[in-house]
Amino acid sequence: MRAARPILPWVVWGIAALSYAVAIINRSSLSALGPAAQEHFGIDATTLAAFPVIQLVVYAGLQIPVGVLLDRIGARAMILIGGALMIAGQAAMATVPEVSLAIVARVLVGAGDACTFISVMRMLPEWFSLRQLPTISQVTGLIGQSGQLVSVVPLAVLVGGAGWMGGFLGLAAVGLLVVILGVVVLRDAPGEGTLLERITGRRGRVTENARSFADSRTAALSAVQPPATEMIPVISEVRVRGLGFWNRARRLLRLPGVRLAYWVHFASPFAANVFLLLWGTPFLVGGLGLDEAAARALLSLTVVSSMVASVVLGPLSSRFIERRVWFNLGITVAIAVVWTAVIVWPATPPLALVLVLLLILPLGGPASMIAFEVARSHTPRSYAGFGTGLVNTGGFTASLLVILLIGLVLDVQGAGSPEDYSLHAFQVAFAVQIPFWVLGIVMIVVEQRRTKRWMEDNGRTLR
Ligand SMILES: NCCCC[C@H](N)C(=O)NCC(=O)O
């Protein structure tokens, strides 16, 4: 009976984190395969650039619908649905002959990816204590992001050796393996069954044993619930039939803590996403004049920096829960200051400044995970999926807009293609980030004050 308590949460978490890592591998599977994709489909660079943009649009656009569905059918089902969609997308990518169908395949991958992260985040509080959560969330983010490394060298080697079809079918097969593990292992909460148990109608010993754990946790959780519904009369009707989506969204957004979480996620990660997803290498090579090998070496610094920040920020934000938003704000301000120095530097910025930028920039990813802690503290449990999805749109919407605006400003300056790139054009283009930082920072300060007041008015403390 006792053995189920310590091991099961870690096994469930392991498979959930692995599902997220596979989602990231799928998300970034074209990042090192641009030339191969151009050759395979016979497309130009503009068409190639449509792939990540469409994928980000699908990802960001589905966050709220997925969050709503998550509250209805649970994290286990959503992670498995996400995995199945990505398998279908990559199998299609392997086999379709035309670029229009490849875009449909990419939409499937984006949709599956959209289901995964927030479902994993939704599952964690059911298995771990509030004190453990910040660290577990950061490590989950870290494991997920390590998928990005797999999609660079190993996937390129696989496609180089087995060909386009073999490589992408291989990716689909890895996804299938993890979905099968998910069917056997994933449970929404202690005491609840796996999909396999549901299909066979038989409850295994592990599930039965986990029931005692579930009973003790239910008692513990009721003592440390997020906002009790009676304290938030505006959303006390969450279960009323026919209460429309917008109505419910408005009621959730009336909570200042949820808005605070949104802006925390909006302000911190976009600069890193924009740099790592698209514009980093063109800037380092076409703007600063580095060769490709040096650019790659500098970009690998960002991985180290992000990993260190993840392991430091989790325990820190758990220990100093009252200050966690200020940690996020400090990191965002630091990124904005260093980037602004690079933008306004009158000549080629010194290497030391570029190194500082590449060390500070990636801190935005781990810092953005604090948003989910804030959301968890302020979202009623029955709205947790909706709230997490809403918050997760913040950083991705900002990233998407900044990616597009940088391309637009480069084009307007006549510096839209590699042969026309210049440092000055990049400095002007990267300046589009400044209003996004200003907006994010101002809104964090405003909503932090409102949240504090709301908590005082309702006699609540952070847990
Ligand atoms: N260790 C970095 C984690 C970054 C998390 C990132 N800001 C995020 O919100 N990710 C969502 C996702 O789907 O990847």
TrEMBL record:
Keywords: Lysosome, Membrane, Transmembrane, Transmembrane helix, Transport
Entry GO terms, CC: lysosomal membrane; plasma membrane
Catalytic function, reaction form: L-lysyl-L-alanine(out) = L-lysyl-L-alanine(in); L-arginyl-glycine(out) = L-arginyl-glycine(in); L-histidyl-L-alpha-amino acid(out) = L-histidyl-L-alpha-amino acid(in); L-lysyl-L-lysine(out) = L-lysyl-L-lysine(in)
Keyword Endoplasmic reticulum assigned: no
Transmembrane spans: 47-70, 77-97, 164-186, 260-281, 293-313, 325-345, 351-372, 384-409, 421-446
InterPro entries from the UniProt entry: MFS, MFS_dom, MFS_trans_sf, MFSD1
Domain Major facilitator superfamily (MFS) profile, first and last residues per copy: 12-452
Subcellular location: Cell membrane; Lysosome membrane
GO molecular function, a single term: transmembrane transporter activity
Its membrane topology: Multi-pass membrane protein
Pfam families reported for this sequence: MFS_1
Assembly mode: Homodimer. Interacts with lysosomal protein GLMP (via lumenal domain); the interaction starts while both proteins are still in the endoplasmic reticulum and is required for stabilization of MFSD1 in lysosomes but has no direct effect on its targeting to lysosomes or transporter activity.
Protein family per UniProt: Belongs to the major facilitator superfamily.
Entry function: Lysosomal dipeptide uniporter that selectively exports lysine, arginine or histidine-containing dipeptides with a net positive charge from the lysosome lumen into the cytosol. Could play a role in a specific type of protein O-glycosylation indirectly regulating macrophages migration and tissue invasion. Also essential for liver homeostasis.
Protein name: Lysosomal dipeptide transporter MFSD1
Lineage, highest ranks first: Bacteria, Bacillati, Actinomycetota, Actinomycetes, Micrococcales
